[in-house]
Amino acid sequence: MEIIKKPILTEKASLLTEKLNRYAFKVDHRANKIQIKAAVEEMFGVTVVAVNTSVVAGKAKNRYTKAGFVSGRAPKYKKAIVTIKDGETIDFYSVI
Questions:
Q1: Phi and psi for 28 in degrees, rounded to 5?
Q2: According to its UniProt record, which protein family does this protein belong to (predicted)?
Q3: Residue 20 pLDDT > 80, yes or no?
Q4: Is the confidence at residue 95, as pLDDT, over 80?
Q5: pLDDT tens figures, 22-69
């Protein structure tokens, strides 16, 4: 099971990084906080202080096609906000 799927690189996530030394990741929906902490520490070589998780509900999507209105839903995902030790950083672009 791949625990960390990808980092979340949005404006809100980058504000968390600048001010509070927190990083956001999309993670496997079956992963718990202990597994997420171990995966981040192993992958990036940093010390994790805290892990907060939430399940983000998928947005309802509608579009008009030849066949009429098509309604659907974007998939839900689990988000982890990881706080790391002061003075340490994660460089996402060096791990690509």
A1: -65, 140
A2: Belongs to the universal ribosomal protein uL23 family.
A3: yes
A4: no
A5: 999 999 999 999 999 999 999 999 999 999 999 999 999 999 999 899
Compute the distance between CA of residue 79 and CA of residue 48 in angstroms, rounded to an integer: 16
**Amino acid (one-letter) located at 24:** A
Are 28 and 5 in contact by the 8 Å Cβ rule? The answer is yes
Judged by average pLDDT, the poorest of 1-5, 42-46, 67-71, 92-96 is: 92-96
- Block residue for tokens 């993670």: 27
Which residue bears the tokens 């309604």?
71
Tokens 């992958």 belong to which residue?
43
Unique residue bearing structure tokens 């996402």:
92
Q: Which CATH code for domain 4-86? A: 3.30.70.330
CA distance 43 to 49: 15
- Would you list the domain boundaries of the chain? 4-86
Smallest CA-to-CA distance from 82 within 3, 21, 32 is with: 21
